[in-house]
Amino acid sequence: MYLAAKARERQERSRVSNGPSRNIPTKKRKHKINLSMEAAAQLLHRAVDLHKNERLPEALVCYEQGIQQLMGLLKSVPPERQRALRDKIETYMKTAEDLKTRIKRERELPSAARTLEKTIQIEAGKIGFSYDVLFRPYLVNAKRARVIDAYIRKHHQLLNFVRFCELCVANRLALIELSTTADPDDMVREKQQQGLRELEQSLHALGVTLRVTYTDGLHDREIVFDNGWIVKSGRGLDIFEPPASPYAIGACDMTMRPCRATNVDVLRVPDG
Questions:
Q1: Residues near 60 by Cβ (< 8 Å), separated by ≥ 6?
Q2: How far apart, in whole angstroms, are the C-alpha atoms of residue 130 and residue 254?
Q3: Type and span of the H or E element at 120
Q4: pTM of the full structure
Q5: Residue 222: helix, strand or coil by DSSP?
Q6: DSSP 136
């Protein structure tokens, strides 16, 4: 009896000194896991809402971030919850892969489906061009424009995009989508994103929706209208030289501002 009691006492001291088993989450750890699970759920719920509203690039970003958070939780949850969590991850991964395929298919039209209608050569220092001159002929019956340009970052590039949006408003487009990249400089990026938010609010007041997505690795610079016209410029919207001063001719009227050398290709996607 005495030896058995001593053995139990040693086991109890060992259990207390070693603390709880690593397989049993502490209260603090459980709370952390629950917070991470809630954050992942919010991201994935937002992804589903964006997906339903056809905001596909934004939905894909949210899916990927939510999936990444769930995968980080796999080893932290109790074994009895891991199978259900793994099944959920696999379901969202399949949805994200299908969405990625759809985005790629819609954005990367086969070259055979695009017919080059004309090329506009703009010489360095040439005047007489504006967004109205370049784009208005291709806005007839358009309701949506998708701008793909990695360099809508700095102040003058944002102003160029504002001018393009003004042309879209004047031609009664309902939706403008911008795919660009975030500037690597923190201060410039903050001003970039603030400027685009202000533009989004301004357009919203006029009944026009602006959707902005930040995507790494953009290379092409083109504008795709939903009426079948595509305009590709080697410089994107950034085709004008800066004015000599804020009070020089050409500061306001872009047709009087000298251009940078570039080529503008106008392509057509056949109906059907």
A1: 47, 96, 99, 100, 103
A2: 5
A3: strand 115-122
A4: 0.64
A5: strand
A6: G
